[in-house]
Amino acid sequence: MMRSLFSGVAGLKTHQTKMDVIGNNISNVNTVGFKSSSTSFQDIMYQTMSGASAPTNTKGGINANQIGLGVTTGATKVSITHAGAAQSTGEALDIRLTDTNSTNFFIVNNGSQNLFTRSGSFYLDGNGNLAMTSTGYLVQGWQVDESTGQIKRDTVTPLRIMNADNLTSQPEATTQATFSGIVDKNDTNINSVDGYSTTLVFYDDLGYAYTARFAIKKSEDGDTSNGYTVALTNIYSNSEKDAAGNPIDLLANHISDKTAAATTDEEKAKAERTAVADLFGSENGTQVDSFKLNSPTYTLSADKKKIVTGSGTNAKTADIPADWTFDSVINGLKFKDANGVEDTNATPLTQIFSGLSAGMTNYAVSEAGVWKAKPGVTATLSFDEKTQALKVTTDAVNYDLDFSKADGTFSSISGKVPGAGGTPGTNKGTGGDTQVLKVSTLGTNFHDITVDFSKLINFDNGGTSTATSDRGTVADKSDGAGKKLGTMTGVQVQQDGKIFGSYDNGNTVLLGQIAVAQFANASGLESLGNNCYGETLNSGSFDGIGRDVTADGGSMNTGQLEMSNVDLSTEFTEMITTQRGFQANSRIITVSDTMLEELTNLKR
Question: What is the domain partition of the chain in residue ranges?
Protein backbone atom coordinates (compact mmCIF):
# COMPACT_ATOMS: atom_id res chain seq x y z
CA MET A 1 0.00 0.00 0.00
CA MET A 2 2.87 2.33 0.71
CA ARG A 3 4.13 1.69 -2.82
CA SER A 4 0.92 3.12 -4.30
CA LEU A 5 1.41 6.29 -2.28
CA PHE A 6 4.89 6.81 -3.72
CA SER A 7 3.74 5.89 -7.20
CA GLY A 8 1.04 8.51 -6.90
CA VAL A 9 3.59 11.06 -5.77
CA ALA A 10 5.83 10.16 -8.74
CA GLY A 11 2.84 10.55 -11.06
CA LEU A 12 2.09 13.96 -9.61
CA LYS A 13 5.70 15.04 -10.11
CA THR A 14 5.91 13.90 -13.74
CA HIS A 15 2.62 15.52 -14.64
CA GLN A 16 3.77 18.63 -12.87
CA THR A 17 6.88 18.59 -15.08
CA LYS A 18 4.77 18.17 -18.17
CA MET A 19 2.58 21.04 -17.11
CA ASP A 20 5.69 23.16 -16.64
CA VAL A 21 6.74 22.41 -20.22
CA ILE A 22 3.27 23.23 -21.53
CA GLY A 23 3.28 26.46 -19.58
CA ASN A 24 6.66 27.41 -21.03
CA ASN A 25 5.41 26.69 -24.53
CA ILE A 26 2.28 28.78 -24.12
CA SER A 27 4.17 31.65 -22.47
CA ASN A 28 6.49 31.78 -25.52
CA VAL A 29 3.74 31.59 -28.08
CA ASN A 30 4.83 35.00 -29.45
CA THR A 31 8.59 34.68 -28.91
CA VAL A 32 10.54 35.14 -32.15
CA GLY A 33 12.22 31.93 -33.23
CA PHE A 34 11.05 29.97 -30.18
CA LYS A 35 10.87 26.18 -30.50
CA SER A 36 8.26 24.30 -28.51
CA SER A 37 9.10 21.32 -26.32
CA SER A 38 7.24 18.14 -25.51
CA THR A 39 7.56 15.74 -22.56
CA SER A 40 7.54 11.97 -22.64
CA PHE A 41 7.21 9.70 -19.58
CA GLN A 42 8.79 6.38 -18.68
CA ASP A 43 8.27 3.96 -15.83
CA ILE A 44 10.90 3.95 -13.12
CA MET A 45 11.58 0.44 -11.90
CA TYR A 46 9.84 -2.73 -10.75
CA GLN A 47 9.95 -4.78 -7.57
CA THR A 48 10.11 -8.46 -8.47
CA MET A 49 8.07 -10.49 -6.03
CA SER A 50 8.93 -13.79 -7.73
CA GLY A 51 10.96 -14.67 -10.73
CA ALA A 52 9.84 -16.43 -13.86
CA SER A 53 10.17 -20.21 -14.24
CA ALA A 54 10.63 -22.27 -17.36
CA PRO A 55 8.00 -24.75 -18.56
CA THR A 56 8.55 -28.48 -17.97
CA ASN A 57 7.13 -31.67 -19.45
CA THR A 58 4.40 -31.72 -16.85
CA LYS A 59 3.51 -28.02 -16.36
CA GLY A 60 3.87 -24.68 -17.98
CA GLY A 61 6.22 -21.90 -17.08
CA ILE A 62 5.39 -19.09 -14.65
CA ASN A 63 5.93 -15.40 -15.46
CA ALA A 64 7.74 -13.09 -13.16
CA ASN A 65 5.66 -11.36 -10.53
CA GLN A 66 6.59 -7.64 -10.58
CA ILE A 67 5.09 -4.51 -9.07
CA GLY A 68 5.87 -1.10 -10.63
CA LEU A 69 7.14 1.71 -8.48
CA GLY A 70 5.92 4.74 -10.41
CA VAL A 71 6.78 7.02 -13.32
CA THR A 72 9.45 9.56 -14.20
CA THR A 73 10.16 12.04 -17.00
CA GLY A 74 11.76 10.19 -19.88
CA ALA A 75 12.72 13.10 -22.15
CA THR A 76 11.94 16.70 -22.94
CA LYS A 77 12.30 17.08 -26.69
CA VAL A 78 12.63 20.42 -28.49
CA SER A 79 10.85 20.66 -31.84
CA ILE A 80 13.85 22.46 -33.32
CA THR A 81 13.55 21.25 -36.90
CA HIS A 82 9.97 22.46 -37.25
CA ALA A 83 9.99 26.05 -38.54
CA GLY A 84 7.57 28.65 -37.30
CA ALA A 85 5.33 30.74 -39.53
CA ALA A 86 6.58 33.92 -41.21
CA GLN A 87 5.81 37.29 -39.67
CA SER A 88 6.21 40.34 -41.92
CA THR A 89 7.92 43.34 -40.32
CA GLY A 90 9.20 45.39 -43.23
CA GLU A 91 12.51 45.95 -41.46
CA ALA A 92 15.57 45.52 -43.70
CA LEU A 93 17.58 43.78 -40.97
CA ASP A 94 14.85 41.38 -39.85
CA ILE A 95 15.78 38.06 -41.45
CA ARG A 96 13.92 34.74 -41.55
CA LEU A 97 15.77 31.53 -42.34
CA THR A 98 14.17 28.96 -44.60
CA ASP A 99 15.44 25.38 -44.71
CA THR A 100 15.27 22.64 -47.30
CA ASN A 101 17.45 19.73 -46.28
CA SER A 102 19.04 20.90 -43.04
CA THR A 103 18.20 23.20 -40.16
CA ASN A 104 20.22 26.41 -40.33
CA PHE A 105 21.16 28.72 -37.47
CA PHE A 106 22.52 32.23 -37.32
CA ILE A 107 25.90 32.40 -35.59
CA VAL A 108 26.28 35.03 -32.86
CA ASN A 109 29.00 35.69 -30.33
CA ASN A 110 28.43 36.80 -26.75
CA GLY A 111 32.00 37.94 -26.28
CA SER A 112 33.35 34.59 -25.15
CA GLN A 113 31.83 31.92 -27.37
CA ASN A 114 29.79 31.33 -30.48
CA LEU A 115 26.09 30.65 -29.95
CA PHE A 116 23.34 29.75 -32.40
CA THR A 117 19.87 31.17 -32.91
CA ARG A 118 16.87 31.17 -35.20
CA SER A 119 15.89 34.67 -34.12
CA GLY A 120 16.86 37.00 -36.97
CA SER A 121 15.95 40.30 -35.36
CA PHE A 122 19.13 42.33 -35.97
CA TYR A 123 20.24 45.95 -35.91
CA LEU A 124 23.40 48.04 -36.39
CA ASP A 125 24.96 49.07 -33.09
CA GLY A 126 26.92 52.23 -32.35
CA ASN A 127 30.08 50.76 -33.83
CA GLY A 128 28.37 49.71 -37.04
CA ASN A 129 28.27 46.01 -36.07
CA LEU A 130 25.37 43.77 -37.02
CA ALA A 131 23.97 42.55 -33.70
CA MET A 132 20.99 40.79 -32.10
CA THR A 133 18.36 43.31 -31.09
CA SER A 134 17.52 41.56 -27.81
CA THR A 135 21.01 40.77 -26.52
CA GLY A 136 23.54 42.77 -28.52
CA TYR A 137 25.38 39.57 -29.43
CA LEU A 138 27.42 40.17 -32.60
CA VAL A 139 26.32 38.38 -35.76
CA GLN A 140 29.12 36.36 -37.36
CA GLY A 141 29.95 36.01 -41.04
CA TRP A 142 32.58 36.42 -43.74
CA GLN A 143 34.44 39.55 -44.74
CA VAL A 144 35.23 40.96 -48.19
CA ASP A 145 38.70 40.35 -49.60
CA GLU A 146 40.03 43.84 -50.35
CA SER A 147 42.22 42.57 -53.18
CA THR A 148 39.37 40.91 -55.11
CA GLY A 149 36.24 42.56 -53.78
CA GLN A 150 34.74 39.09 -53.24
CA ILE A 151 33.74 37.19 -50.10
CA LYS A 152 36.62 35.41 -48.36
CA ARG A 153 35.20 32.30 -46.69
CA ASP A 154 37.38 31.57 -43.72
CA THR A 155 36.80 31.71 -39.95
CA VAL A 156 33.68 33.71 -39.14
CA THR A 157 34.13 37.10 -37.50
CA PRO A 158 31.79 39.91 -36.43
CA LEU A 159 30.24 41.74 -39.36
CA ARG A 160 31.06 45.42 -39.06
CA ILE A 161 28.83 46.85 -41.74
CA MET A 162 29.42 50.56 -41.22
CA ASN A 163 32.98 51.74 -40.76
CA ALA A 164 35.20 54.53 -42.01
CA ASP A 165 36.04 52.59 -45.17
CA ASN A 166 32.52 51.93 -46.39
CA LEU A 167 30.53 54.92 -45.15
CA THR A 168 31.32 56.48 -48.51
CA SER A 169 31.65 55.08 -52.03
CA GLN A 170 34.42 56.07 -54.43
CA PRO A 171 33.59 58.71 -57.05
CA GLU A 172 34.26 58.24 -60.74
CA ALA A 173 35.36 60.79 -63.31
CA THR A 174 33.18 61.34 -66.38
CA THR A 175 34.76 59.89 -69.52
CA GLN A 176 31.80 59.64 -71.93
CA ALA A 177 29.16 62.12 -73.06
CA THR A 178 26.52 62.24 -75.78
CA PHE A 179 24.92 65.05 -77.78
CA SER A 180 21.46 64.31 -79.10
CA GLY A 181 18.46 66.09 -80.51
CA ILE A 182 17.69 68.38 -83.41
CA VAL A 183 19.76 71.21 -84.88
CA ASP A 184 17.49 73.39 -87.02
CA LYS A 185 19.36 75.61 -89.49
CA ASN A 186 16.52 78.14 -89.22
CA ASP A 187 16.97 78.52 -85.47
CA THR A 188 17.98 82.13 -84.76
CA ASN A 189 20.24 80.95 -81.96
CA ILE A 190 22.20 78.69 -84.31
CA ASN A 191 22.78 81.65 -86.63
CA SER A 192 23.67 84.10 -83.86
CA VAL A 193 27.14 85.09 -82.70
CA ASP A 194 26.76 83.28 -79.38
CA GLY A 195 25.15 80.21 -80.91
CA TYR A 196 22.69 77.72 -79.43
CA SER A 197 23.69 76.98 -75.82
CA THR A 198 23.58 73.61 -74.04
CA THR A 199 25.29 72.36 -70.89
CA LEU A 200 26.87 69.16 -69.65
CA VAL A 201 27.38 68.34 -65.97
CA PHE A 202 30.43 66.12 -65.44
CA TYR A 203 32.56 64.85 -62.55
CA ASP A 204 36.26 64.78 -61.82
CA ASP A 205 38.20 62.03 -60.01
CA LEU A 206 37.29 63.48 -56.63
CA GLY A 207 33.56 63.50 -57.35
CA TYR A 208 33.22 67.27 -57.70
CA ALA A 209 30.67 68.38 -60.29
CA TYR A 210 31.32 70.88 -63.07
CA THR A 211 29.10 72.38 -65.73
CA ALA A 212 30.50 72.70 -69.25
CA ARG A 213 28.69 75.14 -71.52
CA PHE A 214 28.74 74.58 -75.27
CA ALA A 215 27.67 76.76 -78.18
CA ILE A 216 26.40 75.16 -81.38
CA LYS A 217 26.89 77.54 -84.31
CA LYS A 218 26.86 77.54 -88.07
CA SER A 219 30.23 76.82 -89.68
CA GLU A 220 32.79 79.57 -90.12
CA ASP A 221 31.85 80.14 -93.75
CA GLY A 222 28.20 80.52 -92.72
CA ASP A 223 27.08 77.63 -94.90
CA THR A 224 25.03 75.23 -92.76
CA SER A 225 25.19 72.64 -95.52
CA ASN A 226 28.81 72.14 -94.47
CA GLY A 227 27.70 71.32 -90.95
CA TYR A 228 27.96 73.12 -87.63
CA THR A 229 30.61 73.75 -85.01
CA VAL A 230 30.28 72.85 -81.34
CA ALA A 231 32.42 75.21 -79.26
CA LEU A 232 33.24 74.86 -75.57
CA THR A 233 32.66 78.30 -74.02
CA ASN A 234 32.80 77.84 -70.23
CA ILE A 235 33.43 75.28 -67.51
CA TYR A 236 31.98 76.23 -64.13
CA SER A 237 32.66 74.60 -60.79
CA ASN A 238 29.39 73.59 -59.12
CA SER A 239 30.95 73.69 -55.64
CA GLU A 240 33.18 76.77 -55.77
CA LYS A 241 32.26 80.44 -56.11
CA ASP A 242 34.26 83.63 -56.23
CA ALA A 243 34.13 86.41 -53.65
CA ALA A 244 31.01 87.83 -55.28
CA GLY A 245 29.24 84.48 -55.10
CA ASN A 246 29.46 83.80 -58.83
CA PRO A 247 30.47 80.40 -60.24
CA ILE A 248 34.16 80.14 -61.11
CA ASP A 249 34.91 79.71 -64.81
CA LEU A 250 37.78 77.23 -65.07
CA LEU A 251 38.52 78.21 -68.67
CA ALA A 252 39.12 81.83 -67.68
CA ASN A 253 41.33 80.74 -64.80
CA HIS A 254 43.28 78.42 -67.09
CA ILE A 255 44.66 81.31 -69.21
CA SER A 256 48.34 81.59 -68.36
CA ASP A 257 48.89 85.09 -69.82
CA LYS A 258 46.85 88.21 -69.27
CA THR A 259 46.95 89.08 -72.97
CA ALA A 260 46.72 87.13 -76.19
CA ALA A 261 48.40 88.81 -79.13
CA ALA A 262 47.16 88.21 -82.65
CA THR A 263 48.75 89.12 -86.00
CA THR A 264 47.27 88.82 -89.45
CA ASP A 265 48.46 88.98 -93.02
CA GLU A 266 46.83 88.37 -96.36
CA GLU A 267 47.17 84.60 -96.15
CA LYS A 268 46.73 83.63 -92.51
CA ALA A 269 45.58 84.69 -89.06
CA LYS A 270 47.77 83.56 -86.20
CA ALA A 271 47.04 83.53 -82.44
CA GLU A 272 49.35 82.97 -79.49
CA ARG A 273 48.10 79.49 -78.61
CA THR A 274 50.16 79.24 -75.43
CA ALA A 275 47.72 81.60 -73.73
CA VAL A 276 44.72 79.31 -73.92
CA ALA A 277 44.24 75.73 -72.75
CA ASP A 278 44.04 73.03 -75.41
CA LEU A 279 40.56 71.62 -74.90
CA PHE A 280 39.45 70.31 -78.27
CA GLY A 281 42.74 69.50 -80.01
CA SER A 282 46.52 69.16 -79.66
CA GLU A 283 49.24 71.77 -79.29
CA ASN A 284 49.67 71.83 -83.08
CA GLY A 285 46.03 72.51 -83.87
CA THR A 286 43.19 74.87 -83.19
CA GLN A 287 42.56 75.87 -79.60
CA VAL A 288 39.33 77.32 -78.18
CA ASP A 289 37.51 79.81 -80.42
CA SER A 290 37.36 82.58 -77.84
CA PHE A 291 37.90 83.42 -74.22
CA LYS A 292 36.79 86.21 -71.91
CA LEU A 293 39.21 88.37 -69.95
CA ASN A 294 37.80 91.09 -67.68
CA SER A 295 34.62 91.18 -69.81
CA PRO A 296 36.09 91.83 -73.32
CA THR A 297 35.95 88.88 -75.67
CA TYR A 298 39.05 87.95 -77.67
CA THR A 299 38.45 85.89 -80.77
CA LEU A 300 41.19 83.54 -81.92
CA SER A 301 41.57 81.59 -85.13
CA ALA A 302 43.87 78.74 -85.97
CA ASP A 303 46.98 78.71 -88.10
CA LYS A 304 46.10 78.04 -91.70
CA LYS A 305 48.72 76.30 -93.77
CA LYS A 306 48.16 76.36 -97.51
CA ILE A 307 49.96 73.19 -98.43
CA VAL A 308 47.68 71.32 -100.75
CA THR A 309 46.13 71.38 -104.13
CA GLY A 310 44.64 68.55 -106.00
CA SER A 311 42.73 67.49 -109.00
CA GLY A 312 39.79 65.17 -108.96
CA THR A 313 37.89 63.66 -111.82
CA ASN A 314 34.52 62.04 -111.45
CA ALA A 315 33.93 58.86 -113.41
CA LYS A 316 30.99 58.82 -115.74
CA THR A 317 27.85 57.42 -114.25
CA ALA A 318 27.04 54.04 -115.70
CA ASP A 319 23.58 52.98 -116.71
CA ILE A 320 21.54 52.46 -113.56
CA PRO A 321 20.43 48.81 -113.29
CA ALA A 322 17.30 47.70 -111.52
CA ASP A 323 19.07 47.23 -108.21
CA TRP A 324 20.31 50.85 -108.11
CA THR A 325 24.04 50.19 -108.01
CA PHE A 326 26.61 52.58 -109.40
CA ASP A 327 30.36 53.21 -109.41
CA SER A 328 32.16 56.42 -108.64
CA VAL A 329 35.94 56.79 -108.95
CA ILE A 330 38.47 59.39 -107.86
CA ASN A 331 42.00 58.77 -109.10
CA GLY A 332 45.32 60.36 -108.26
CA LEU A 333 44.19 62.98 -105.77
CA LYS A 334 47.43 64.37 -104.31
CA PHE A 335 48.38 66.92 -101.67
CA LYS A 336 50.62 69.86 -102.69
CA ASP A 337 51.77 73.06 -101.07
CA ALA A 338 50.98 76.56 -102.30
CA ASN A 339 53.98 76.45 -104.62
CA GLY A 340 52.83 73.27 -106.29
CA VAL A 341 55.29 70.97 -104.52
CA GLU A 342 53.85 67.63 -103.50
CA ASP A 343 53.58 67.20 -99.73
CA THR A 344 55.16 64.05 -98.27
CA ASN A 345 52.99 64.03 -95.15
CA ALA A 346 50.06 62.31 -96.87
CA THR A 347 49.76 59.45 -99.31
CA PRO A 348 48.05 59.82 -102.70
CA LEU A 349 44.37 59.01 -102.71
CA THR A 350 42.70 56.54 -105.02
CA GLN A 351 39.18 55.52 -104.11
CA ILE A 352 36.50 53.49 -105.79
CA PHE A 353 32.96 53.23 -104.45
CA SER A 354 30.75 50.49 -105.79
CA GLY A 355 27.07 50.93 -105.17
CA LEU A 356 25.89 51.55 -101.65
CA SER A 357 28.22 49.05 -100.01
CA ALA A 358 31.42 51.06 -99.95
CA GLY A 359 33.92 49.78 -97.42
CA MET A 360 36.31 51.60 -95.12
CA THR A 361 39.31 53.32 -96.74
CA ASN A 362 42.16 54.61 -94.56
CA TYR A 363 44.76 57.23 -95.45
CA ALA A 364 47.87 58.09 -93.47
CA VAL A 365 48.40 61.71 -92.44
CA SER A 366 51.11 63.03 -90.16
CA GLU A 367 50.30 66.71 -89.87
CA ALA A 368 47.11 68.57 -89.09
CA GLY A 369 45.93 71.88 -90.50
CA VAL A 370 43.54 73.34 -93.01
CA TRP A 371 44.17 72.01 -96.52
CA LYS A 372 43.20 74.49 -99.22
CA ALA A 373 43.20 74.22 -103.00
CA LYS A 374 44.95 76.71 -105.25
CA PRO A 375 42.63 78.93 -107.26
CA GLY A 376 41.24 77.35 -110.35
CA VAL A 377 41.46 73.72 -109.34
CA THR A 378 38.45 71.46 -109.22
CA ALA A 379 39.06 69.78 -105.86
CA THR A 380 39.35 71.15 -102.32
CA LEU A 381 40.53 69.26 -99.26
CA SER A 382 40.19 70.90 -95.85
CA PHE A 383 41.09 69.53 -92.43
CA ASP A 384 40.29 71.26 -89.13
CA GLU A 385 41.81 69.64 -86.04
CA LYS A 386 39.11 71.03 -83.76
CA THR A 387 36.36 69.16 -85.59
CA GLN A 388 38.86 66.50 -86.70
CA ALA A 389 37.13 66.32 -90.08
CA LEU A 390 38.76 66.23 -93.52
CA LYS A 391 36.41 67.33 -96.29
CA VAL A 392 37.06 66.48 -99.93
CA THR A 393 34.95 68.42 -102.43
CA THR A 394 34.85 68.01 -106.22
CA ASP A 395 32.42 69.16 -108.85
CA ALA A 396 30.33 66.00 -108.67
CA VAL A 397 31.45 63.96 -105.68
CA ASN A 398 31.53 65.13 -102.05
CA TYR A 399 33.30 63.02 -99.42
CA ASP A 400 33.44 63.71 -95.68
CA LEU A 401 36.32 62.06 -93.83
CA ASP A 402 37.06 61.62 -90.14
CA PHE A 403 40.58 61.93 -88.72
CA SER A 404 41.76 59.78 -85.80
CA LYS A 405 44.65 61.18 -83.76
CA ALA A 406 45.04 57.85 -82.00
CA ASP A 407 46.44 56.01 -85.00
CA GLY A 408 47.20 58.88 -87.41
CA THR A 409 44.63 57.88 -90.02
CA PHE A 410 41.40 59.28 -91.37
CA SER A 411 38.52 57.24 -92.73
CA SER A 412 35.75 57.84 -95.20
CA ILE A 413 32.37 58.29 -93.57
CA SER A 414 30.08 59.50 -96.35
CA GLY A 415 30.05 60.28 -100.01
CA LYS A 416 27.40 61.74 -102.29
CA VAL A 417 27.31 60.46 -105.87
CA PRO A 418 24.76 60.69 -108.67
CA GLY A 419 21.77 58.40 -108.42
CA ALA A 420 19.12 57.32 -110.91
CA GLY A 421 18.09 60.07 -113.31
CA GLY A 422 20.66 62.45 -111.86
CA THR A 423 19.15 62.41 -108.38
CA PRO A 424 21.59 62.40 -105.44
CA GLY A 425 22.66 59.09 -103.95
CA THR A 426 24.56 58.52 -100.73
CA ASN A 427 27.25 56.10 -99.55
CA LYS A 428 27.73 55.86 -95.81
CA GLY A 429 30.56 54.34 -93.79
CA THR A 430 31.61 54.66 -90.13
CA GLY A 431 33.44 57.12 -87.91
CA GLY A 432 33.40 60.88 -87.57
CA ASP A 433 30.89 60.85 -84.71
CA THR A 434 33.10 61.45 -81.68
CA GLN A 435 35.43 64.13 -80.36
CA VAL A 436 37.62 64.23 -77.26
CA LEU A 437 37.03 67.04 -74.78
CA LYS A 438 40.49 67.39 -73.28
CA VAL A 439 39.60 68.63 -69.79
CA SER A 440 42.61 66.74 -68.41
CA THR A 441 44.58 69.92 -69.07
CA LEU A 442 42.66 71.58 -66.23
CA GLY A 443 44.30 69.39 -63.57
CA THR A 444 45.35 65.90 -62.58
CA ASN A 445 41.91 65.12 -61.17
CA PHE A 446 40.25 65.60 -64.57
CA HIS A 447 39.83 62.99 -67.30
CA ASP A 448 39.35 63.61 -71.00
CA ILE A 449 35.75 63.12 -72.10
CA THR A 450 34.85 61.38 -75.36
CA VAL A 451 31.82 63.17 -76.79
CA ASP A 452 29.53 61.30 -79.19
CA PHE A 453 27.65 63.47 -81.72
CA SER A 454 26.05 60.60 -83.64
CA LYS A 455 22.58 61.36 -82.28
CA LEU A 456 22.73 65.05 -83.25
CA ILE A 457 20.68 65.46 -86.43
CA ASN A 458 19.77 68.26 -88.85
CA PHE A 459 16.03 68.62 -89.16
CA ASP A 460 13.44 71.27 -89.95
CA ASN A 461 11.72 71.66 -86.60
CA GLY A 462 9.97 74.96 -87.14
CA GLY A 463 13.04 77.01 -86.30
CA THR A 464 13.54 75.34 -82.92
CA SER A 465 16.62 73.32 -81.97
CA THR A 466 16.36 70.69 -79.23
CA ALA A 467 19.99 69.62 -78.93
CA THR A 468 21.00 68.50 -75.44
CA SER A 469 24.00 66.81 -73.88
CA ASP A 470 24.19 64.10 -71.26
CA ARG A 471 26.74 61.86 -69.58
CA GLY A 472 27.28 58.26 -70.69
CA THR A 473 27.23 56.55 -74.05
CA VAL A 474 24.42 56.10 -76.54
CA ALA A 475 24.13 52.42 -75.62
CA ASP A 476 24.38 52.84 -71.85
CA LYS A 477 23.82 56.11 -70.01
CA SER A 478 25.74 54.80 -67.00
CA ASP A 479 28.85 53.85 -69.01
CA GLY A 480 31.51 56.49 -68.35
CA ALA A 481 28.95 58.86 -66.86
CA GLY A 482 30.98 59.44 -63.71
CA LYS A 483 29.70 59.68 -60.16
CA LYS A 484 29.99 61.97 -57.18
CA LEU A 485 31.38 60.81 -53.84
CA GLY A 486 28.66 58.50 -52.50
CA THR A 487 27.23 58.54 -48.98
CA MET A 488 25.68 55.35 -47.61
CA THR A 489 21.90 55.52 -47.59
CA GLY A 490 20.92 51.96 -46.72
CA VAL A 491 21.86 48.32 -46.27
CA GLN A 492 20.27 45.32 -47.98
CA VAL A 493 20.67 41.60 -47.31
CA GLN A 494 20.24 39.21 -50.23
CA GLN A 495 18.83 35.69 -50.01
CA ASP A 496 22.32 34.20 -49.83
CA GLY A 497 23.18 36.42 -46.87
CA LYS A 498 25.37 38.85 -48.79
CA ILE A 499 25.14 42.36 -47.41
CA PHE A 500 25.26 45.31 -49.80
CA GLY A 501 25.50 49.00 -49.02
CA SER A 502 23.56 51.49 -51.14
CA TYR A 503 24.96 54.96 -51.81
CA ASP A 504 23.41 58.17 -53.06
CA ASN A 505 25.64 58.18 -56.15
CA GLY A 506 24.02 54.97 -57.39
CA ASN A 507 26.79 52.61 -56.29
CA THR A 508 26.11 49.29 -54.57
CA VAL A 509 29.04 47.81 -52.64
CA LEU A 510 29.45 44.29 -51.16
CA LEU A 511 30.12 44.63 -47.42
CA GLY A 512 30.10 41.03 -46.15
CA GLN A 513 28.04 37.86 -45.92
CA ILE A 514 26.10 36.31 -43.04
CA ALA A 515 27.13 32.70 -42.47
CA VAL A 516 24.97 29.94 -40.99
CA ALA A 517 25.73 26.84 -38.93
CA GLN A 518 24.38 23.32 -39.38
CA PHE A 519 24.55 20.35 -36.99
CA ALA A 520 24.33 16.61 -37.44
CA ASN A 521 21.77 16.49 -34.63
CA ALA A 522 20.16 19.88 -34.25
CA SER A 523 17.79 18.49 -31.59
CA GLY A 524 20.84 17.80 -29.48
CA LEU A 525 21.59 21.51 -29.04
CA GLU A 526 21.27 22.92 -25.56
CA SER A 527 18.86 25.80 -24.93
CA LEU A 528 20.75 28.60 -23.19
CA GLY A 529 18.07 31.25 -23.04
CA ASN A 530 17.95 34.54 -24.92
CA ASN A 531 16.73 32.58 -27.95
CA CYS A 532 20.17 30.97 -28.23
CA TYR A 533 21.48 27.43 -28.30
CA GLY A 534 24.85 25.94 -27.55
CA GLU A 535 26.51 22.86 -28.96
CA THR A 536 26.71 19.66 -26.90
CA LEU A 537 28.48 16.34 -27.19
CA ASN A 538 25.42 14.91 -28.93
CA SER A 539 24.68 17.79 -31.32
CA GLY A 540 27.87 17.75 -33.30
CA SER A 541 30.41 20.55 -33.33
CA PHE A 542 30.62 23.84 -35.21
CA ASP A 543 33.67 24.05 -37.50
CA GLY A 544 34.20 27.78 -37.01
CA ILE A 545 33.71 28.53 -40.71
CA GLY A 546 30.01 28.03 -41.33
CA ARG A 547 28.12 27.56 -44.56
CA ASP A 548 26.39 29.52 -47.28
CA VAL A 549 22.67 29.24 -46.54
CA THR A 550 21.93 28.54 -50.21
CA ALA A 551 24.32 25.55 -50.35
CA ASP A 552 21.48 23.12 -49.61
CA GLY A 553 18.56 25.15 -50.89
CA GLY A 554 17.98 27.44 -47.91
CA SER A 555 17.61 31.21 -48.04
CA MET A 556 17.42 34.38 -45.99
CA ASN A 557 14.26 36.44 -46.32
CA THR A 558 14.48 40.05 -45.24
CA GLY A 559 11.63 42.04 -43.76
CA GLN A 560 10.37 38.87 -42.05
CA LEU A 561 10.87 37.03 -38.77
CA GLU A 562 10.26 33.41 -37.85
CA MET A 563 7.43 33.18 -35.34
CA SER A 564 7.21 30.70 -32.49
CA ASN A 565 6.25 27.20 -33.62
CA VAL A 566 3.99 26.68 -30.58
CA ASP A 567 0.64 25.17 -31.60
CA LEU A 568 -1.93 26.34 -29.07
CA SER A 569 -4.50 23.70 -30.01
CA THR A 570 -1.94 20.99 -29.30
CA GLU A 571 -0.87 22.65 -26.08
CA PHE A 572 -4.43 22.96 -24.76
CA THR A 573 -5.11 19.32 -25.57
CA GLU A 574 -1.94 18.32 -23.77
CA MET A 575 -2.99 20.51 -20.88
CA ILE A 576 -6.30 18.64 -20.55
CA THR A 577 -4.65 15.22 -20.50
CA THR A 578 -2.01 16.47 -18.09
CA GLN A 579 -4.63 17.87 -15.78
CA ARG A 580 -6.56 14.61 -15.78
CA GLY A 581 -3.40 12.62 -15.26
CA PHE A 582 -2.46 14.80 -12.30
CA GLN A 583 -5.99 14.48 -10.93
CA ALA A 584 -5.90 10.69 -11.25
CA ASN A 585 -2.55 10.46 -9.47
CA SER A 586 -3.84 12.61 -6.66
CA ARG A 587 -6.72 10.16 -6.29
CA ILE A 588 -4.17 7.35 -5.86
CA ILE A 589 -2.85 9.16 -2.81
CA THR A 590 -6.27 9.91 -1.34
CA VAL A 591 -7.55 6.36 -1.86
CA SER A 592 -4.37 4.91 -0.42
CA ASP A 593 -4.79 7.22 2.55
CA THR A 594 -8.39 6.05 3.00
CA MET A 595 -7.28 2.46 2.94
CA LEU A 596 -4.65 3.19 5.58
CA GLU A 597 -7.30 4.89 7.62
CA GLU A 598 -9.49 1.80 7.43
CA LEU A 599 -6.53 -0.27 8.51
CA THR A 600 -5.94 1.86 11.57
CA ASN A 601 -9.61 1.60 12.44
CA LEU A 602 -9.38 -2.20 12.82
CA LYS A 603 -8.25 -1.82 16.43
CA ARG A 604 -11.56 -0.30 17.32
Answer: 2-52+63-80+579-603, 86-168+486-562, 176-279+438-471, 327-433
